[in-house]
Amino acid sequence: MNNQDNGTEQVWTQAQSGPFRVLVVEDEELMRAIIVQLLRREGYEIFEASAADAALQIFEREKIDLAILDLNLSGGGSGLDLLGKMHELDPEVMGVIVTAYASIESAVEALRQGAYDYITKPFANDHLKAVVRKALEYKAAFRENRFLRRELREKYRFESIIGNCDAIDQVFRVMEKVARTDSSVLITGESGTGKELVARAIHFSSERANKRFLPINCGALPENLLESELFGYKRGAFTGASQDKVGLLKAADKGTIFFDEIGDMPLALQVKLLRALQERECYPLGSNEPVSFDVRVLCATNKDLDKESREGRFREELLYRINVITITLPALRERKDDIALLANHFLRKYEKPLGRSAMRFSKGAMRVLIGYGWPGNVRELENAVERAAILAETDVIHAHDLPEKLHATTIASAAPETTGMTLEELEREHMRRVLNEVAGDKVKAAQVLGIHLSTLYRKVQRYRLENEGTGQPGVVKPALQHA
Ligand SMILES: Nc1ncnc2c1ncn2[C@@H]1O[C@H](COP(=O)(O)OP(=O)(O)OP(=O)(O)O)[C@@H](O)[C@H]1O
Ligand SMILES: [Mg+2]
Predict the structure, then answer these.
(1) Which of 328, 347, 381 is the last residue of a domain?
(2) Which residue CA neighbors atom 24 of ligand 1 most closely?
(3) Secondary structure in 3-state letters for the chain
(4) Whose CA is nearest to atom 15 of ligand 1?
């Protein structure tokens, strides 16, 4: 395979424009005419040469996407040598070798030396067309990938992770340390806490940033499919395996593989994966030839893998292997101070495509955001903000622009088990919660409750809430104690 992604990145700013350009190097005039005519009909822009020198001259002058080279050129030199020279000038050019000698050795040598594929004379027209099309598709995908990777690198810097609390600071400190290493990292946390974001940031800050980051969701695929995806397979290994397939472990070579929901990987496969990671090689299905790979392993789970392993659902040895370092992401409700930060961050993100700027949250809206429990964590917050940005009629997002659910929970969490409580009891309970949320700050509490400060003082006295939120032992009015 002509995979020249060695990190010497050239700037690629747009997708392929205009037709692909193909250079045909063939000394037999008739054969050359046939190839040229065939490919021209496919819509490619064609250049042709009968000898190596002439071909190189064209190659230096023109931007060629793909070269079709006869293995034995009569003017001396081989198509493979010529391809080598072309690769020195442009590592991205795709080479297809044409050989009259259907010897498997020369074909294998061609691939080893960086040709994308080979065809043997005589060939079926359709075969030639298919090989060329596949090569160019591969090239386009490869370029696009690299372009995307550059974008991704920008997007997934550490700075893209928002948070100011101690728990997130701690996450950053560990990330900085592990990014520079090749250690396996297990990222744990509830759904939507940013596990994948952290995994990507680690990859894109590591020495492997120029190579692929390949996420694989272990929970989404049935066991046999997951296995063949991971290890690859040989043509004919099972029904439907119509051609060889490179496994993800190999596809991520020199890069990072991210096992998402690793806790959902079936036990039998865990054993195979462990063996592959230890030996740094795996066997594609239907093959006795090991394939070696060099990958960095990042895993994520929202399960308690220690418990899973104690209860026999997760292989202990695999846990040791993937859990060299653990990063635990806090639930959003455990870092309420970050809610405003994150909400504003997402508002900046989502106002832009709406053609707006300087949108903001009303105090009431922010209160709802902070009061909510966020079972879906940052992802849920992000979705809520996006929706509100779209719905808001002015630049200010009001509480009523936020999803209904958020209000319901705010009220519910302010007054759990309210059935049977009097209005007065409810009021006291709500005040108590607010006072705790604002750490006993009476001015803030009055603002949050929307009442005058003097009213607040009166009620605080009446409900004996003087010490709520101040860290002093509170006084519980017997009538308000419920189970
Ligand atoms: N600290 C953060 N700063 C900015 N965006 C964040 C942060 N944490 C999460 N996000 C955003 O929240 C969304 C969910 O994050 P991510 O997909 O990484 O979560 P996850 O933990 O992998 O979730 P799941 O367990 O459901 O797969 C993403 O859009 C991500 O960009
Ligand atoms: Mg995830």
Answers:
(1) 328
(2) 191
(3) CCCCCCCCCCCCCCCCCCCCEEEEECCCHHHHHHHHHHHHHCCCEEEEECCHHHHHHHHHHCCCCEEEEECECCCCCEHHHHHHHHHHHCCCCEEEEEECCCCHHHHHHHHHCCCCEEEECCCCHHHHHHHHHHHHHHHHHHHHHHHHHHHHHHHCCHHHCCCCCHHHHHHHHHHHHHHCCCCCEEEECCCCCCHHHHHHHHHHCCCCCCCCEEEEECCCCCHHHHHHHHHEECCCCCCCCCCCEECHHHHCCCCEEEEECHHHCCHHHHHHHHHHHHHCEECCECCCCCEECCCEEEEEECCCHHHHHHCCCCCHHHHHHHCCEEEECCCHHHCCHHHHHHHHHHHHHHHHHHCCCCCEECHHHHHHHHHCCCCCHHHHHHHHHHHHHHHCCCCEECHHHCCHHHHHHHHHHHCCCCCCCCHHHHHHHHHHHHHHHCCCCHHHHHHHHCCCHHHHHHHHHHCCCCCCCCCCCCCCCHHHCCC
(4) 194
